[in-house]
Amino acid sequence: MSIMDIPEVRSFILHWGEMGTEWGVNRSVAQMHALLYLSDRPLHAEEICEKLGLARSNVSNGLKELQSYQIVRRVHVEGDRRDHFTADIDLWDMLMKITAERKRREIDPTIQLLGELAESLEGRKDVPNHVRERIGRMHDFIGNLAGWYADVKRLPKSTLVALMKLGSKVARFLPGKADN
Description:
The protein is mainly α. It has helices at residues 7-22, 27-38, 45-52, 56-68, 91-121, 129-153, 157-166, and strands at residues 43-44, 72-76, 83-87. The protein has a three-stranded antiparallel beta sheet.
């Protein structure tokens, strides 16, 4: 029995594809990730094509994308010359890898551009003050967010999981907390 014969598996793969589009990831790439995540063994590209009904070129490009996020890796299966692929199943590691790659692709270039814009606007009299101020604030805010991310990602996984489970209760440990 193939895992694709299980209705819940098909539902998960379809939903993961839909969620992928909400997160800015191609639907078929997200579906490939879902399939590999649920698979109990490495799959080769032709199997992925067959199970998901995707073109070979689409699967090749999708696998490259997933490998760039480091959430899917190529493995070799003894006795088979084809490349096989498997997904990271540690959810925390997957989250951290995706976050790091999204930061590299999206946040870092934004911080750089905002810094350049803020510098270019310094001392300009032909630009309204509120424009300089807002671009400067946005640069500071996103820079601080990136700094916070860098600090948090250095924490041990067990500490991060504990913080996540604490949720808003963590505010009890901060000075000036609001009582709920």
